[in-house]
């Protein structure tokens, strides 16, 4: 036996030849981690606290703490959001479990709160850096080591959403989705390569040829494990089953036309799907029926269905070859079998059929109505309905995106030249993710993987053209130490240097430059929202819920049984998680898009009660009716507090009517002399949001401001200028509290007598916690008997124990005036809360 044939020598040679690449990937991984930790100063604050980025990150930390408090049990249903219904949590359990296990290990079973926060903050950065590894291997098996290393470099520095969602502090499951879906594709690819190289046949399974089966089986099992990990981070992971199934259908057809066996493909698909079915089954909640967003029978059916698809495709192929049928009939039989399968599903389970049919539009279709206002759910190719590539280029760089398209075209052209399975798999995978970002730009963090691989593939082809492999071999044979490097440089050719320069200038430099721009911290939540939620936590009554308790979900058709002390906090859905996680109070609406209300399909639908309906209500009475309708219990209001910020009143107000499908008339075009400008109209100023934030709740009978934060420079001044100029208003043209908290109260009833039909006014001056004052006033007409009545929301006597500890209140008594008469009236807090009558 020669040394070349000796297994030990072969293994040693393999180690010697691969260690430089392993070292390169390790260095690239550490660079990737360094980039992702650049904004650490914005996350780990000087006071020792940790500030997470975006609302979902805060919510993940909430579910993590509940998990650690009740380990190993996890919260599945949360009654402390979407009050008074609660919300099922559609986040997968794995991301939280990984952070929990890490925290428990580092904390020796008892991690401190700061340690948990630290683990949570660094976790996305670590997962983002680890993604370098599967990307390298996919690139390697697509175009060799050079392609793998280049792909690793590109994903390590990839800008856009992949970077921002894996920065320190962005504690969300998105980066885990990217890592595990890429690992799934890597192991699935390795299983295909191994099974095909070993010429695996189903007979090998029956004959127990373990030398043939061992490696493909191991890779297939790992593929199933990684797919399950991916889906247990995000229930919508069925997208990747669709990708491999579509790939498999076309790969079977190609193999059949070439008269090649596809048993390698069937074996890989069946084992992968069987493993994923077994692993996902324990997490299914039968009461969910068929749901795409919660772990339900849909996820089991899709895995089993995909496995059955692989088995059926293999069976059809074997029968086809046994009967020596014409290859052109094979696609027709597959099409017929697919149609028959859909017919059977429609008859057996119409709900499952409806979900399967609608799922592609959910992922790949452009959102309409309210969902179109969700930032991450909009198409990456459109901005306000106008086609644009600006968001594409900012996520992937211009050359990166164009390289990915060119790479797909080259892989597609290879279909006519007997492509390898891994080439076709990458093509189908990339095409489907491209469709996904057309529907929703949030999938840009997936497509960054494809852009890196395809760009590297293109770079690898360029290096092949200049005979880089020959240079590589010469270096390996001649360079034994660092001293040999200068002598080996004589092998380098001009065209090889130019090729490397082209790759650096057009592929590596753009992503590096963009990465430095994107590697910055987030200001969400901003200081006013943090301060407002902390105030809410400290100065409002305890709702009577145990914050870290795991509550059982109510049975179908029943409401969760809240204590009598429970209440909701109304705000726009963007801020729901902040209200819950920082304020420890129960928001009516949340970033799961629950509690928004409004309409979904047609203006002819009933306008359901919720945040959109409340804030667009054209009068106080209609807004109050919405609060009453939110809670079906006749003696309960759906909300006690309302939180508004300057963005709700200006920048994002348009999203509110969008959810009601009634958007006309809130803004009007105004000619400025050089162009038309959109300005708020009467309908806007009559909305409840404008009454609360722009007018400070002046004149409202049952809503009082109880706190405001520091003022920020916003568009509020411009809106007030419009109101003063066009509608004769006299609003001070200044920015006021960025976040304002209002309380709904029954209101004290001030009654008295004046001359019949006489105009009666009531007013007082409100002093806020920021030292700002504004006028509160109402006007009414005495009836024919001379009686008048005002319902007022403010107490002049200050807060009482056990109720709202407001710091915004009248600076003196109410003044009632009519004719030459003025009267001062004091109002107690009890009268405001209980709706008592006070005679002037």
Describe it.
This protein is of the alpha+beta class and 840 residues long. Among the domains are: 200-364, no CATH class; 527-743, Rossmann fold (3-Layer(aba) Sandwich); 746-839, Sandwich (Immunoglobulin-like), CATH 2.60.40. The protein contains 33 helices and 19 strands. Strands 6-5-7-11-10 form a 5-stranded mixed beta sheet. Strands 13, 14, 16, 17 and 18 form a 5-stranded antiparallel beta sheet that branches. Strands 15-12-19 form a 3-stranded mixed beta sheet. The radius of gyration is 32 Å and the shape is elongated. The N and C termini lie far apart (112 Å). 45% of the residues are buried.
What does the secondary structure layout of this molecule look like, with pairings?
Elements: H1 7-36, H2 40-43, H3 55-69, E1 77-78, E2 87-88, H4 94-106, H5 113-130, H6 132-143, H7 145-157, H8 160-164, H9 174-197, H10 202-206, H11 210-231, H12 238-257, H13 263-280, H14 297-322, H15 329-348, H16 350-364, E3 382-383, E4 386-387, H17 390-396, H18 398-413, H19 421-439, H20 444-465, H21 468-478, H22 485-488, H23 494-518, H24 527-539, E5 568-570, H25 576-581, E6 586-587, H26 611-615, H27 620-630, E7 641-645, H28 646-649, H29 655-660, E8 667-671, E9 676-680, H30 682-685, H31 688-693, E10 703-708, H32 716-727, E11 739-744, E12 748-753, E13 759-767, E14 773-781, E15 787-792, E16 809-810, E17 814-818, E18 821-825, H33 829-834, E19 837-839
Parallel strand pairs: 5-6, 5-7, 12-19
Antiparallel strand pairs: 1-2, 3-4, 7-11, 8-9, 10-11, 12-15, 13-14, 13-16, 13-17, 17-18
Helix pairs in contact: 1-5, 1-7, 3-4, 4-5, 5-9, 6-7, 6-9, 6-20, 7-20, 7-23, 9-11, 9-13, 11-13, 12-14, 12-19, 13-14, 15-16, 16-19, 17-18, 18-20, 19-20, 20-23
């Amino acid at each position: 036996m020669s040394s070349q044939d000796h297994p030990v020598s072969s293994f040693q040679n393999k180690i010697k030849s691969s260690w430089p690449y392993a070292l390169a990937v390790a260095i690239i991984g550490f660079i990737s981690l360094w980039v992702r930790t650049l904004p650490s100063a914005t996350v780990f604050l000087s006071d020792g606290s940790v500030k997470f980025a975006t609302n979902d990150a805060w919510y993940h930390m909430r579910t993590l703490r509940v998990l650690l408090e009740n380990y190993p049990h996890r919260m599945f249903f949360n009654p402390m959001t979407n009050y008074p219904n609660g919300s099922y949590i559609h986040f997968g359990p794995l991301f939280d479990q990984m952070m929990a296990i890490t925290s428990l290990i580092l904390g020796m079973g008892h991690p401190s709160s700061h340690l948990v926060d630290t683990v949570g903050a660094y976790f996305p950065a670590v997962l983002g850096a680890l993604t370098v590894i599967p990307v390298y291997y996919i690139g390697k098996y697509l175009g060799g080591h050079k392609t793998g290393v280049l792909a690793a470099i590109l994903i390590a520095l990839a800008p856009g959403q992949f970077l921002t969602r894996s920065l320190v502090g962005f504690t969300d499951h998105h980066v885990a989705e990217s890592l595990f879906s890429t690992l799934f594709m890597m192991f699935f690819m390795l299983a295909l390569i191994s099974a095909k190289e070993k010429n695996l046949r189903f007979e090998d399974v029956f004959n127990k040829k373990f030398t043939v089966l061992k490696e493909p089986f191991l890779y297939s099992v790992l593929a199933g494990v990684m797919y399950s990990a991916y889906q247990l981070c995000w229930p919508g992971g069925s997208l990747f089953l669709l990708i491999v199934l579509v790939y498999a259908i076309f790969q079977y057809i190609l193999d059949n036309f070439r008269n090649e066996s596809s048993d390698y493909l069937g074996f890989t698909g069946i084992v992968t799907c069987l493993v994923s079915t077994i692993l996902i089954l324990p997490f299914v909640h039968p009461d969910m029926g068929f749901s795409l967003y919660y772990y339900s029978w849909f996820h089991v059916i899709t895995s089993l269905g995909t496995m059955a698809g692989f088995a059926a495709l293999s069976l059809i192929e074997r029968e086809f070859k046994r009967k020596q049928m014409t290859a052109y009939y094979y696609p027709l039989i597959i099409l017929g079998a697919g149609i028959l399968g859909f017919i059977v599903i429609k008859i057996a389970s119409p709900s499952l059929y409806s979900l399967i049919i609608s799922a592609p539009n959910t992922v790949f279709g452009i959102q309409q109505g309210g969902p179109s206002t969700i930032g991450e759910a909009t198409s990456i190719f459109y901005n306000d309905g106008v086609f644009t590539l600006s968001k594409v280029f900012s996520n992937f760089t211009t050359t990166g995106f164009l390289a990915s398209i060119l790479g797909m075209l080259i892989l597609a052209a290879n279909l006519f030249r007997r492509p390898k399975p891994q080439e076709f798999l990458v093509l189908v995978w990339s095409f489907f993710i491209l469709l996904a970002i057309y529907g929703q730009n949030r999938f840009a963090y997936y497509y960054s993987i494809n852009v890196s691989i395809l760009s590297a593939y293109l770079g690898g082809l360029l290096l092949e053209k200049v005979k880089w492999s020959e240079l590589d071999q010469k270096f390996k044979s001649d360079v034994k130490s660092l001293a040999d490097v200068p002598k080996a440089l004589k092998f380098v050719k001009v065209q090889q240097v130019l090729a490397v320069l082209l790759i650096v200038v057009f592929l590596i430099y753009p992503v590096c430059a963009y990465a430095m721009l994107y590697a910055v911290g987030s200001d969400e939540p901003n200081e006013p929202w943090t301060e407002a939620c902390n105030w809410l936590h400290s100065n409002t009554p305890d709702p009577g819920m145990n914050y870290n308790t795991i509550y059982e979900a109510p049975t179908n058709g029943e409401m969760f049984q809240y204590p009598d002390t429970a209440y909701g906090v109304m705000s726009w859905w963007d801020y729901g998680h902040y209200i819950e996680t920082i304020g420890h109070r129960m928001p009516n609406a949340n970033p799961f898009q629950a509690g928004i209300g409004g309409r979904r399909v047609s203006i002819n639908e009933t306008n359901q009660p919720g945040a959109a309906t409340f804030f667009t209500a054209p009068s106080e009475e209609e807004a109050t009716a919405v609060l009453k309708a939110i809670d079906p219990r006749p003696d309960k209001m759906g909300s006690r507090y309302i939180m508004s910020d300057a963005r709700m009143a200006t920048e994002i107000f348009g999203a509110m009517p969008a959810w009601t499908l009634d958007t006309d008339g809130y803004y009007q075009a105004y000619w400025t002399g050089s162009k038309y400008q959109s300005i708020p109209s009467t309908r806007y100023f009559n909305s409840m949001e404008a009454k609360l934030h722009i007018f400070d709740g002046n004149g409202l009978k049952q809503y009082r401001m109880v706190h405001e934060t520091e003022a920020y420079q916003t568009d509020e001044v411009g809106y007030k200028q419009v109101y003063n100029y066009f509608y004769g208003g006299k609003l001070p043209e200044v920015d006021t509290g960025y976040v304002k908290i209002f309380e709904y109260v029954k209101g004290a009833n001030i009654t008295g007598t004046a001359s019949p039909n006489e105009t009666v006014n009531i007013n007082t001056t409100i002093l806020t916690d920021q030292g700002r004052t504004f006028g509160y006033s109402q006007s009414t007409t005495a009836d024919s008997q001379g009686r008048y009545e005002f319902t007022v929301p403010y107490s002049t006597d200050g807060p009482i124990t056990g109720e709202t500890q407001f710091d915004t209140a009248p600076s003196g008594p109410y003044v009632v005036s009519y004719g030459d008469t003025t009267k001062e009236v004091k109002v107690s807090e009890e009268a405001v809360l209980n709706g008592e009558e006070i005679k002037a």
